[in-house]
Structure formats: C-alpha cells, structure tokens
Amino acid sequence: MSPRLMVVDDDQSIRETLENHFRDSGHDVTAARSAEEALSKIAAVDPSLIVTDVRMGGMDGLALLAKLREARPDTDVIVITAFEDMRTAIEAMKAGAFDYLVKPLDLDQIDLTVERCLRDQRSRRRLAQYAHEAAEPYALSQLVGRDPKMIAIYKMIGTLTRSRAPVLIRGETGTGKEVIARAIHFNSGNADEPFVAVNCTALPEQLLESELFGHVRGAFTGATGDRKGRFELAGQGTIFLDESGDTSPAFQAKLLRVLQEREFYPLGGERPRRTEARVVAATHRDLETLVAAGQFREDLYFRLRVVEITVPPLRERRGDIAPLARHLMAKAARELHRGQMRLAPDAVATLESLDWPGNVRELENALLRAAALSTGSTIAAADLSTRTPSADAKSVANAPERPAQTLDDLERAHVERVLRETGWNKRQTCRLLGISRPRLDRILERHGIVVTERRAT
C-alpha cells in the first residue's frame, strides 16, 4: 500500500501541480484548498505526510501545523514558503515541521524531501517495533511466578511506573535481578528510551569510569577521541549498575555525585555533563555489613535504596519452579529451533526437589542443556543434568585422594566437557557457560583446543 499524502494550498495551480506529480510518482494523494478543509478530511484520509503552504486565506499553515502536532503527532508536515518568508520557515521547524520547501518549487527537490521523510517514518516504525519486541518479555503479564513474594515485587514494579526514584535490587546470584530491572524500565513512561546495563565488576576501575562517564581526547593512553559514557547514552532511560556492591570507595564517591547533582565529569573533562537517567543498582552483597566495615559509603547506600526490592531465591518459592521451568523450556526450544518441547511429570518432580543454589540462571542452563542434547520433544528426568555445585563438592569430598589440579586444568576439562555435550557447538557452549563468543575463543586458544567444522558435526 502506497503512502497517503495530502496537499494543502489555496493556489489552484500549485495544488494541482503537486497533486498530479505525487500521483504520477505512485502516491495516494488528497488535495485541500484550505487548512480548514484539510482538518475536515484528515480523519477519513489518514495521511502519512502533509505538504502545506504557509500563507493561505483563513487559518495559515503554521496554525494547521500546531493543530496537527497536538492531534496527530505521528503525521509529518512539510511546509511551503516563499524565499522572503525564511523567518516563517524557521518558526515552522521550531514548531515541529519535518522540513520546508522554497518557492518556486523544484519537483526534484520535492521528491527528495518527501522520500527522506517517508524513509524516516519507516525507520521510526522499525525502531518502535524493536522497542515493543524488547519490552514484550518484561510486560507484567509475562513475568513468571505467583509466589506472594513475587506478587509483591510485581506490585512494586507497577508503582514505580509513576516514579523516577533510584532502585536497589538485592538478591543472590542468578535470581533474576536484571530481569526485574528491565521490567521496571519497560513498564515505565520512559520505555522508549534506552536501557543500558553495566556490570561493575567486569572492568578495572579506570575503564569502568570511562565506560560510565565517557572520556575526552588525551584523557589516557589510547584515548584518541572523545567518547560518550553510558550515563549520557542512556538519555532519559535507565542505567542498570549490576554488582554495584563490589565497587571501590573512589568510584562510589563519583557515583554519589551523579545521584545527588545529576551531573558527572568525563575522564579528563573540565565541564560537567547532565544526566536524566534513572539509576537501578543491583547487588548480591550484604551492604549493611560492608557499610559497617567501611567498604561501602553509607551516604551512597541510602541514596541507592530509595526504593528497595529483594528478589527471593528459588528454593524459597518452590511453587514457582514448575511454571518457571515450562516457560524456560519453551524459551530454550525457540533458541535452539527445536519446535515445541514439554517436560515429563517426573522431570518436573525432579526439578521441584532441588535447591538450585544458582537459582533461575542454573535452572535455565539445566533446561537449555537438556533441550540441546535431547533427540525427542519430551524431556524426562533422565534427560536432566541435575548436578549442582554443592553436590559436586560432596562427591569431591567423598572421592579417593588424587593429585591436585590447577585452575587451568579444571577450566580446560570443564570447557571440553561442555563442548562435547553440545556436539562442539560454540554458540550453545557460550550459552551454557554464560560467556561471550570472544571469551570462549580466547579460552580455546589459551588451552590449544581446536574446534574444526568436521569435529563439530
């Protein structure tokens, strides 16, 4: 279906010229000889783009633009102005016009402007679709778990849609703290803004500061140009600071300034920059103990926990294990392109009987491994690898003594075992190990492990 255009001009010759030209170009065109007539037709026509003259009898083009910005913000407007009317063109751009055309009209220039506008509309629609797809898994209706503790969290997320207050999410590793943070963001009024996640323990302190606050050229060796930090890139969205309890006192002081003053200095910069991003922090650490030990700033602690959410471990909400497992199994099947897969009753019973010290992340990896290795569409208890770190520790304690192994030996053995389980599939191996593809490649290179196409088949 071709885009619908509307031409608004009280000059009949210009109106008919544009109408015929756009129709010859393959557009669906409606013409109006006044702004009032355009407004009367607009609901029925539903145009994607309106090309309007500024100076007309009755309501002028700028007044029409103002009404359209209020009633139909997704409809773009291109204004036509005379050369001596350039001040009016500037006012039109400030009022939200997409662009302006100068009389006498150049039809080639008109085509370029219209095509640029329609191309921009297509990009906006794609971005809106991507934002919707990114937000869909974090809609409150999609969050899995009906334990009273989780219901309380969902209610809190709903309350936070009307607030920009900092949030502190606490819970054991693997409980889904980032999922909660994303749900807060994507259910807020700023869901169209970026969600930026940063693991505070993944980088050395100076690199972490550069990552969050950006840097200017020459701030350090290798800083060959200015770079925006995550706070700036987040705009009016959300910045998620994972493992924030493990940061240094020096970094904590800078983070405190951001929360207090809503501004920060890029590394090497002399002028502060503003941020409007909401801060959501997460930690598995006991912050009260860290504060008492002088390892975490008490003022930052209170600044972060304006709103506090504690995510319960999986063992404290066993009633959620079965629905969560079915949800994660469906997700694994989609990722592996396996079609529909189900959990047998004995598999569900086995999953519900375990403590899951790694929480939801461990459960998800167990189901992903089972889906990757299973040849059928039903996962039984026998298909599950239910070994946990605690169980491994018990087996090691009861095993006969053997020569101690280095960490490198253990890493190599573990990576090779997971590679064998996945049929030497690097993508699935990264997913099960919870690491990136470049990191896996570095591990393989360090240990001299070769994964050839023939070996992987």
Instruction: Tell me the number of strands.
Output: 14
Unreliable stretches:
388-397
> How many H/I helices?
20
**What is the number of independent domains?**
4
Shape: globular
**CATH class category name of the largest domain:** Alpha Beta
Helix percentage = 40-55%
Identify the strand order in the major beta sheet: 2-1-3-4-5
At a glance:
This protein has 457 residues and is an alpha/beta fold. The chain has helices spanning 12-24, 35-45, 61-71, 86-94, 107-135, 148-160, 177-186, 205-213, 230-233, 249-261, 287-292, 298-304, 321-335, 345-353, 359-373, 389-398, 407-421, 426-433, 437-447, 453-456, and strands spanning 4-8, 28-32, 49-53, 76-81, 99-102, 167-170, 195-199, 238-242, 263-264, 273-274, 278-283, 307-310, 342-343, 378-379.
Key words describing this protein structure:
alpha/beta, Rossmann fold, Helicase, Ruva Protein, domain 3, 4 domains, five-stranded parallel beta sheet, 20 helices
Summarize the structure in words.
This protein is α/β, with parallel strands linked by helices. It folds into 4 domains: 4-130, Rossmann fold; 139-312, P-loop containing nucleotide triphosphate hydrolases (Rossmann fold, 3-Layer(aba) Sandwich), CATH 3.40.50.300; 317-399, Helicase, Ruva Protein, domain 3 (Orthogonal Bundle), CATH 1.10.8; 401-457, Arc Repressor Mutant, subunit A (Orthogonal Bundle), CATH 1.10.10. 49% of the residues lie in helices and 12% in strands. It contains 20 helices and 14 strands. It has helices spanning 12-24, 35-45, 61-71, 86-94, 107-135, 148-160, 177-186, 205-213, 230-233, 249-261, 287-292, 298-304, 321-335, 345-353, 359-373, 389-398, 407-421, 426-433, 437-447, 453-456, and strands at residues 4-8, 28-32, 49-53, 76-81, 99-102, 167-170, 195-199, 238-242, 263-264, 273-274, 278-283, 307-310, 342-343, 378-379. Helix 10 crosses helix 12, helix 13 (321-335) packs across helix 15 (359-373) and helix 15 packs antiparallel against helix 18. The two termini are 45 Å apart.
